[in-house]
Amino acid sequence: MTKHESERKVVIVTGGAKGIGQGIAEDLARRGMHVAIADSDADIGVAFAKRLISSGNKARFYPTDVADESAVDSLVTEVLARSGRLDAVVNNAGISDFRPLADETLEHWMRVLSVNLTGAFLLARAAAPHLRQTRGAIVNIASTRATMSQPGNEAYSASKGGLVALTHALASSLAPHVRVNCISPGWIDVRTRQGAVKVSVDPTSARDNEQHLVGRVGKVEDVARAVAFLLSEDAGFITGANFVIDGGMTRKMIYEE
Ligand SMILES: NC(=O)c1ccc[n+]([C@@H]2O[C@H](COP(=O)([O-])OP(=O)(O)OC[C@H]3O[C@@H](n4cnc5c(N)ncnc54)[C@H](O)[C@@H]3O)[C@@H](O)[C@H]2O)c1
Domain holding 88: CATH number? Predict the structure, then answer.
């Protein structure tokens, strides 16, 4: 997305305080978009938004639990009131919490589904009329665990599989005005972005890196650049799609020798 294309555009990034969402928010802000960071972690969210603003970007923090219907509706109302328009939504907020099947409770299952899947539905529904006006776009952040699992992934995998399916359903419902796509990341190292300021961390091990076809674990920026592309006019013929960004991990045969 060029600076000219993104100027004045407004994007909501959920889970934008930390991790991949922080990288997405920073990347879109640098491209000139006004970024509404919606996250349940107010301490880091406020500090991160201040950091973006102090380096000349347009950003604001909105404390939000994406699983809360009224909070999501208020988020969209407030963003519209302050910024006057809405061009894009990135449904990134998620909890990656795995439990053995025998220990999985209905309460925990419902919470994972509520945050990872229902939150995206709630925000897409609330944002849809405004995105139609701007011919906007939505990107959902799912996971390669939508299609592959380790033991104890029931709630998380189900939520991400649902998000991939929600993506093509929304792409149909919101056509032709709003494009809706999905990114399924593999292993992305988010340790550098767990506070408001990016920190350096111990490098990933050779074993971690070498098991990927591209020879390294993913970076937050790998996902952020793909989000920027999918939100841009360059992706104008792409909707309802799921892009796997995993360094080739889900293309490897895994028979043990
Ligand atoms: N890191 C990975 O390897 C990886 C791989 C595949 C998919 N993902 C997905 O990418 C997304 C971001 O993951 P991450 O690794 O950056 O995680 P993270 O924990 O570093 O960041 C998640 C962010 O979401 C926020 N959040 C959590 N619950 C929320 C709620 N109810 N309402 C609003 N905000 C909430 C957190 O406060 C945090 O800022 C998630 O959807 C995750 O499932 C991550």
Answer: 3.40.50.720
